[in-house]
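ENTRY TYPE: paired fold submission
RECORD: A
CONTENT: sequence, then structure tokens
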Amino acid sequence: STAVTQGADSFLIDALMAAGNGKWFLVAERGDLDALTRERQLIISTRNSYDGEGSNRLEPLLFSGLIMSGGIIGYDTNLISGGIGARYLGIGVSNQYRVDEVTVALRTVLVQTGQVLLNVITSKQVYSTSTGFDTFRFTENGTELIEVEAGAARNETATYAVRSAIEQAVLEIIHQGIEQDLWDYSTGG
């Protein structure tokens, strides 16, 4: 859907790399693995052509013990909406609001067995508000009309909501892992 960002994996990588001041997770590239593999093949081929077979070998790629996967599983619009307004003698004010919600799922899978170790679903609400002022007056014995409207709207972005929900999911995964004794960050491992 175009209602939400298509770059949620970048938010996940950022959240994982920021956890514990960058010390809790070692993140390996898998989203663009084809490009990474092609570039490594180009390096090997070039080095073999200029320096001879087997020279300056590349270090092996990191392998993963855990895979984090999931996605944006919902974007529900107009869950709650409402407002209030008043007009007196042709002068009025109004205030309206609307609440949407984005839902994210994140799971941790053990690579050795394929077992889903942890699974979380988090949600973040997206708030929108609108305030308006208007005046509506007849002048000259009802033959002329003056109408003026002004207003402003404020919308929390869906991208911010997605990022917040992903960061909350990573935090929940960390807490669940500690509760299930999968890791212990108080001792550094």
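RECORD: B
CONTENT: sequence, then structure tokens
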Amino acid sequence: KLTISSPAVNTTIGMNQDKLDWKGAKLEIGFDAAYKKLKFDLHSPGLDVLVAKGATSVKVGEIKMQGDAERAYPGGFLYLGTSKASIASMSFANAQAANKGFSVKEISLESTTTSKNDLIDSALKFGMANITMNDTPIGNFHYDYSLKRLHGPSANQLFVELSTIDQYKNNPEKMLEMQQKWKQYGIEILKHNPEISLDRLSLTGKSGELKASGKFQFKDVAAVDFETPILMLSKIESMGEVSLADAMIDELIDGTQTDPDARGMMRSQFYAQIEGFEKQGYVKREGKTLTSKVSWKNGQLMVNGKVFPPKPEIDP
């Protein structure tokens, strides 16, 4: 078990006597005898910085991180396990600027990676609560994604060999041999229909929500498809959905733009674009919410069931 600690430091820096209050940190890392498994635990009460005689400040609240990891394959780069990190709060303020700064509470990051029958699933969740910009509440933000059905042995061996590629860059015969191996790994990986998903992308404010989700995958790939890479496009399938509350548009513009003229310009440009997409059918209005569904299949991009970009009309 390894323990690393940093003492608290409360001091002044530079000619302006800027204030630094680092509240210390402690990190503990534990390994098993074979260094195959590890556990870690980090804790710090946070950090405060005051500069320009207090006109500008940066504050970071309590920091915590815990987790465990286990090497999936001997000598490999893939790890299984869970981890969680959080920052209680974070803020930046500048009393001398029109842009007054921002603040965030409860920043969190969680990850989980598991394996079953040599297929690896991995998921990550990131969130921020009570986001405020220029004294305007913005809301809560979430970003979650996942990777499913990754063939572990093939992906691991590919990563291992890529890490040694420099020693073969001047050996054309060896490079050709390696490329043939990578092709076989790719075939095996895609044979299991791996899927990358945007499970949740959202910003929730007092007036509504912006949210999106989607997934991307190769479907029914065969070894012969690798002989003509351009045909691989026909094996890609993806779909997604985006929705946005009307009232949140103004909320976002007000929170990011302090100048009234800039606000007016952004509103005008945004609404003009949305109106054009609505007329073409690429954006639909459901009550007070704008929505779009996007898909890619058989080499064609579709938005709300319509080809995108639209095909030009040909005069008779």
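NOTES ON RECORD B: Residues 1 and 33 are 10 Å apart (CA to CA). The first strand starts at residue 2 and ends at 6.
STATUS: closed
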